[in-house]
Design a protein that fits this description.
Chain lengths: 168, 331
């Protein structure tokens, strides 16, 4: 699960460590920190924005450890990639910039390509690929596949998507 | 006993199947009060006409031995215009470009107040509304269960058995040839071309397989479903169609690794009518193999109802025609 969290630190040395330790102790994987050094809240605290991957079962423990360390947690936003989908592509997948195809999905923020497997039998024949896509919800998974379909038209790729019953 | 005088226009695989089924089921038909008399039959070379009723076993044998039934130079449409009868069984070849001779036959039949039962998709995929309007104005019965899914009941199921339900969507495999090719590509891990050749040898695919493998046969059936069940007013050109010719064995293997099989799926929902290769979970009701057809009908009250059956074949298609005939005339 991906978590985005707003916290507030007291303006005293060592506070950043007491904010980050609970996350690493519980095997969270920090993705980004936005630290507004010069900013202060009306309470005189320093606002900080964290994004990390963590086991959903550890989230409550992380929050209580933070609060025990005197860190205020003001917002928790879970981005759970709860929906998983698969899509098959056929065509000149590599020559049409497969990285760009993947990035377009990843850049949506609501879905990401978590696995790609490529099968290229001969240089001059079409290759095939399976993509696994995770998304934060069914609608988002559906949207991601629609985006993929639009890219595929431009790149002359065939997209084979799951039947409707799988996506609704 | 009610006597129904019928013509069979087009005496190929389906037309002969109809004759065989009428022979085979004569007693059952009499038991429900129907005496079916075939008074005229036409193929592309001519016709046989007999006001007392044609001897069906003799005519089937004649077609098999000589390649034609023609004893007179009369066309199908001339029969429809000039021979006194109630029912035209229209089984000439499908033509999706113009509607072909089938369209002419159907319009002529309604023009003379005759009922029509058909397996010919072309005219319906092209001119559905017009045909329905003309039939209604003429007071003619018009049924076409055999055009979609062959022996698999879908139109009558949705209209009669599921009456009162709102049909939300239909999703399914409506072309047995594509299903066979894709199933075999997976089994043999062989190319599309190889498995197309195999199905042509077995007589499953036609010499010119374009209509099947490019998806237009599925598209025609979707148009009939959309118009008949969903009350839309669409034709063949409104369908978003992708065929199966680009599918690779590698794609099938990759899909299999993810727990899916690839099928040519037709779907109708809201304003979307699409025929395209799709991933179907292995073990899902839609994941039928071989030449089978299947359809899932999503309804508001009954939930999802899934039917599967033989989508083609002489006797199978004749079964759908027979059921239409019985529903039209059963006292
Ligand atoms: N076969 C199936 O399993 C199946 C399933 C569902 C629907 N259908 C549809 O049912 C229809 C018949 O299919 P089929 O398999 O029976 O085709 P088919 O074997 O090719 O038979 C077509 C018949 O129509 C005759 N014909 C051609 N032009 C004619 C004309 N101008 N006037 C009178 N007869 C004419 C042919 O004559 P000749 O014998 O002289 O060539 C032949 O007897 C098609 O529309 C098909 O799409 C077929």
């Amino acid at each position: 699960m991906r978590v985005s969290m707003d916290i507030e630190l007291k303006d005293i040395p060592g506070q950043l460590l007491s904010a980050l330790n609970p996350i690493s102790e519980l095997k969270g994987n920090l993705k980004s920190i936005v630290h507004h050094h010069e900013k202060r809240t009306p309470r005189g605290t320093i606002p900080l924005q964290l994004v990390f991957e963590a086991d959903p079962e550890c989230l409550d423990a992380i929050i209580s450890k933070l609060e025990k360390n005197g860190v205020d947690v003001t917002r928790v936003d879970e981005k759970r990639f709860v929906e998983h989908g698969a899509v098959i592509l056929i065509g000149h997948i590599v020559h049409t910039d497969v990285e760009d195809t993947i990035e377009t999905i990843d850049n949506t923020g609501f879905a990401e390509v978590v696995d790609i497997r490529l099968s290229m039998p001969h240089i001059d024949t079409s290759s095939s690929a399976s993509l696994k896509i995770d998304a934060i919800g069914k609608k988002e998974l559906h949207d991601a596949i629609t985006i993929l379909r639009d890219i595929a038209v431009k790149k002359d790729l065939l997209v084979i998507e799951p039947i409707r019953a799988e996506l609704s | 006993m009610r006597t129904i005088r019928a013509s069979i226009i087009g005496f190929g695989s389906v037309g002969q199947g109809v004759a065989e089924v009428f022979l085979q089921k004569r007693e059952e038909l009499e038991n429900i009060g129907l005496d079916l008399k075939v008074v005229a039959i036409a193929d592309s070379r001519g016709a046989e006409i007999n006001n007392e009723g044609i001897d069906l076993s003799e005519i089937i044998a004649r077609k098999r031995e000589t390649g034609t039934i023609a004893s007179r130079q009369i066309t199908g449409v001339e029969i429809i215009r000039n021979v006194e009868h109630d029912l035209v069984i229209e089984t000439t070849p499908t033509d999706v470009e113009t509607g072909g001779v089938g369209l002419e036959n159907m319009l002529a039949a309604f023009g003379h107040g005759r009922d029509v039962v058909t397996s010919n998709k072309g005219p319906l995929a092209l001119k559905y509304r017009e045909l329905m309007d003309v039939a209604r104005e003429a007071g003619s019965g018009f049924r076409f269960e055999a055009t979609v899914g062959g022996a698999m009941p879908i139109l009558n199921l949705a209209h009669d058995t599921l009456a009162g339900n709102k049909i939300i969507s239909i999703e399914g495999i409506l072309n047995g040839t594509c299903n066979y090719i894709l199933s075999r590509m997976m089994e043999e891990q062989a190319s599309y071309e190889q498995m197309l050749a195999e199905s042509q040898e077995l007589g499953i695919a036609e010499t010119d397989p374009t209509n099947d493998v490019e998806g237009s046969d599925t598209a025609c059936k979707l148009v009939i479903l959309a118009n008949s069940i969903f009350g839309m007013d669409v034709n063949y050109n409104d369908v978003d169609v992708t065929g199966i010719t680009k599918i690779t064995p590698e794609a099938l293997i990759l899909a299999n690794d993810e727990g899916y099989t690839i099928k040519l799926i037709g779907e109708v929902k809201d304003d979307l009518i699409r025929a395209s290769p799709r991933l179907v979970p292995i073990g899902h009701p839609l994941a039928v193999g071989g030449t089978l057809n299947v359809a899932s009908i999503q309804t508001d009250l009954a939930g999802t109802v899934t039917i599967t059956g033989r989508g083609a074949g002489s006797i199978e298609t004749a079964s759908a025609i027979l059921s239409d005939v019985v529903s039209l005339y059963r006292p």
